[in-house]
Amino acid sequence: MSTLLLVTALTGGLAACGPEDDKAAGGSGGSAASAKPSAKPAKGGDAGPDTYDCGGKPPVMPAGHTMIEVKLERDASGFEAQTAKPKCTPNDWIYHGEGEAKHYTLASGVKAQLALSAGPGQYKPVDKDQLAMHIDRCLAEDHSRVKPPFGCYGNVYEITLDGKGQVATIKEKWSV
Question: Rounded to the nearest 10 degrees, how much is the dihedral formed by the CA atoms of 130, 133, 175, 149?
Fold first, then answer.
């Protein structure tokens, strides 16, 4: 009898762990990547804290585009950032910075876009000063000073560089 109760309790608890529950709760699942993690173990063993099955290969950036995670803002003209790589998480592929931070300088005519808090795929163009203020407040985790329609999403941005190696475009990556 106690075994039956244990199995029933475990089965009921596991039923709420799948990605389908995210949809039922109205969750969007994270980045714009099409792969969705499942509760299945990854190849070669158990699904541990860092092993999820996102159902495919990690997303690949278009040629000339780089994903970065800003670590330190110097001023409105530049920042320090690590190259960000996609990691499979319970919320889909999420980018995280790796390796040594590199200094990036913003081109004088940089085209900057910040993610809107309404969800993925929605952006608003901003000038260099607005971008610098947003990065500064998000890095300081001063979320109360980041007003709608914006939010902070892990300081991850997609960039392109111009012929001088300066940031020509920068677009904030929305995520959960």
Answer: -60
Token duo for residue 166: 């300066």
Residue 81: other Cβ atoms inside 10 A: 25
Q: What average pLDDT does the segment 113-138 reach?
A: 93
Q: Are 131 and 123 in contact (CB under 8 A)?
A: no
pTM score, whole prediction: 0.70
Nearest partner of 113 among 167, 163, 40, judged by Cα: 167
| Nearest in space to 91 (alpha carbons), one of 174, 1, 15 | 174
Q: For 128-173, what is each residue's pLDDT tens digit?
A: 999 999 999 999 988 889 989 999 999 999 999 999 999 999 999 9
For 27-67, how does the pLDDT look when each residue is reduced to its tens digit (9 = 90+)? 334 334 444 444 444 443 344 445 667 877 888 999 999 99
